[in-house]
Amino acid sequence: MKYPLADLSYDIVVVGGGPAGAMSARYAAMNGARTLIIEEHRAAGSPVQCTGLVSSKTLDVCGIRSGPWVYQEVTGAHIFAPDGSNISIGGEKVRAYVVDRKMFDRNLLRQAAAEGAEVMIGTKAVGLQDVDGMKVLEVVYSGRKMRIKAGVVIGADGVQGSIARWSGLGQVQKVLSGVQIETVYDVADTDHVEVFVGRAVPGFFAWVVPVSDNTARIGLCVDPARTQLSAYEHLMQFLATNPRMKARAGSGCSDMVVGCIPLGPQSCTVSNGVLISGDAAGQVKPTSGGGVYMGALCAKIAGEVAAHAALSGDTSAEALMEYDKRWRHAVGRELAVGMRIHKVFGRLDGEDFNELIRFCGEPEVLELINQYGDIDHPSVLLGKLVARTKGKKLLGVFRVALKAMMGKE
Ligand SMILES: Cc1cc2nc3c(=O)[nH]c(=O)nc-3n(C[C@H](O)[C@H](O)[C@H](O)COP(=O)(O)OP(=O)(O)OC[C@H]3O[C@@H](n4cnc5c(N)ncnc54)[C@H](O)[C@@H]3O)c2cc1C
Predict the structure, then answer these.
(1) Residue nearest to atom 26 of ligand 1 (CA)
(2) pLDDT tens digit string along 312-322?
(3) Interval between CA 29 and ligand 1 midpoint (Å)
(4) What's the CATH number of domain 8-48+102-172+266-331, 3.30.565.10, 3.30.70.270, 3.90.25.10, 3.50.50.60?
């Protein structure tokens, strides 16, 4: 039997077989650490809690190329204001892919295994203790409890993970509720996603992501602090009342995804013998809710730092702080700017959004968006807008933001 039901011992144990877990394990193994990933479900990437829209940069960070698990190449977006007006952004270049997340996750896990990481699926972490300077994870595998020792535990256990809590770490700043269906849809452009903003989606936005020319993933996220209704109730209302949905979406669905999106990273992501990464650490873009890119990027650093710490014998929080510093240096500012944009957008009302979309549709602004718009790094575009647009043009954005800051909370 491959996994004897006795105590096991590794340099690194990664809890969670999602993108952050697979990437951190891969980089830990690449750096010479004996690494194990445990995943509570019996198959990685399942159940899916994702739309499967990942940027081209995500594939670069993950070191994988397009494959049969890519359904569509996305070059742009149609963005709809509450009054029905819309702008189209993008161009010729492929900026993102619509993927089968299950296959995507399995690809990442296979890569980790190819670097020497071991994988135990159907294994759930149920407790974490300190014993003789080591971390000891209590797990349930095939219905039986066992213990696994680790120099360092990486908590890549997602938004509802336990490792951060068991290690005395804090919480993410906010959690959004999301729901999505896959259904028949009369897709206008298979290379464009559709985005809908306004009061129908309090605190976030709705999306239509094409899977084929007649199927799409239609979903939305809401900020529970801004609505009494569930995300599901909002989606049902959106499908029933939005004119474009009424005209293009079929009834019923072939798949439904329900999940949470954590926003605003934890103030500290390490403790003695523990690092947390991905959704568990709030490493998610607050402007789009996408977590695969940021999670993978930070997880690489987690794997490297954990491996060096475990192999050097110093797994103290001080030694592991290198991870916290390095990931914040890489994306901390982007997440902070994204959080500010998210907060301002959450306060806008329908007319604000109409005004904002009109402003973004002005040729000079549209040109900047098309040139510098980056789903992973929206702060780059903001910087260009501030630097390159004359003060008069920017007034539109500032007016909307100012109104929101002053009047609505
Ligand atoms: C509706 C919706 C749509 C989304 N769409 C997109 C999108 O289009 N693009 C994008 O980039 N992001 C999207 N996201 C976010 C994205 O899915 C997450 O950011 C991403 O999956 C985070 O990866 P992760 O590895 O940190 O966590 P996860 O993918 O959640 O993986 C965590 C893993 O840990 C396992 N686990 C948890 N606890 C334990 C335990 N105790 N023991 C063992 N295993 C455990 C879980 O089973 C899970 O497999 C979406 C999210 C939602 C809710």
Answers:
(1) 278
(2) 999 999 999 99
(3) 22
(4) 3.50.50.60
